[in-house]
Amino acid sequence: MGVRVIWLNKIGLILKLGRLPFLLFGFLCFTNGALLAVTFNMPFLWDRFLGGYAVLLLAHLSVSYSNDYWDFEVDHYNQPTLFAGGSGVLVRNPELRPLAKKFGILLIILSLSLAVIFSFIYSSLTFLLIALFGNFIAWYYSAPPLKPSYRGLGEVATALSGFILPAASYVAICGYLDLKIVLFTLPFVIFMTSFILSVEIPDMEGDKKGHKNTFIVKKGRKIGFISIGLVGVLGTLSLMLLSLSGIFPGINFQLMALMSLFPTLVGLYLLISRTAKRERATKLVNWNILILVVFITVFDLYLLSGIISTYF
């Protein structure tokens, strides 16, 4: 009985290490690209959607394990919050650190294996290239020798995921990459920048002690809040520009620009309320991340409602 309890506790820690709630944000972004493809009269096929998502799910999940492994030293200086500071599992249970690394590698191997199978079945080399790129960023985000999160490029790597996730599902459904999806992902890239800045703000002191050269470490929390506010404005402007492009008939980007005012106004509130104090700053960025999740959900629901109204 005692051994059983120990194993159950160990499994619980491994699951906690995976930070499963973060997968929701990735799923919402992934779904957006598939819905765009169907909006442009591509048939929605469950095998393509679920097969494509399985590849990205494994890659996304691997990030939690590999990041906690490579951020082990830094996380000793950070206190886990709702969205930042790592899971804290390895700091309290360092014996699980080798397992975290092996599991992260296993997830990447499985992701790439499924990507090869998917690309072979559906004759999509483009999907395989996106999967390779996504897994490359997932592993090397914190891993040497590249580790962009330590070299002042973590924001760029995270922003790129705003392209990778929707583009992967679009290509999974269509089989190809085109100008529509490239332009469509622009707001996602911008709002993903707001996301990573929000995640970095609570960890400023710990990241500095651990020599993690993030934007917030270099510029401070107040500049970070100003940046979040300005990024939100850029996100809304990008949606307005898409509405003027004429490339997306049938999609009311003016309405989506209006809906994006919610995260933008929250970002501007953060700009006005900017503070250098960690506790207050953490509460502010938690609200920003939550409203970003809500906005992406609304975006998905809008595209889905348009599809339903067309077919039914």
Task: Give a quick summary of the entry.
With 312 residues, this protein is mainly alpha-helical. It is 77% helix and 0% strand.
Provide keyphrases for this structure:
312 residues; mainly alpha; 0% strand
Annotate the secondary structure layout.
Blueprint: H1 2-17, H2 22-39, H3 46-70, H4 72-75, H5 89-92, H6 97-121, H7 125-140, H8 154-174, H9 179-184, H10 186-200, H11 204-209, H12 215-219, H13 221-245, H14 253-259, H15 261-272, H16 278-311
Distance between the termini: 55 Å
Question: Stretches where pLDDT falls below 50 for ≥5 residues?
Answer: none
Number of helices: 16
Which series of helices and strands comes N to C?
A: HHHHHHHHHHHHHHHH
Largest pleated sheet: none
Shape: globular
Beta-strand percentage range? under 5%
- Specify Rg, calculated over alpha carbons: 20 Å
Q: Could you please describe the fold and organization of this structure?
A:
The protein is mainly alpha-helical. The protein has 16 helices and no strands. α10 (186-200) runs antiparallel to α16. The protein is globular, with a radius of gyration of 20 Å. The termini are far apart. The relative contact order is 0.12. The model has no long low-confidence stretch (mean pLDDT 91).
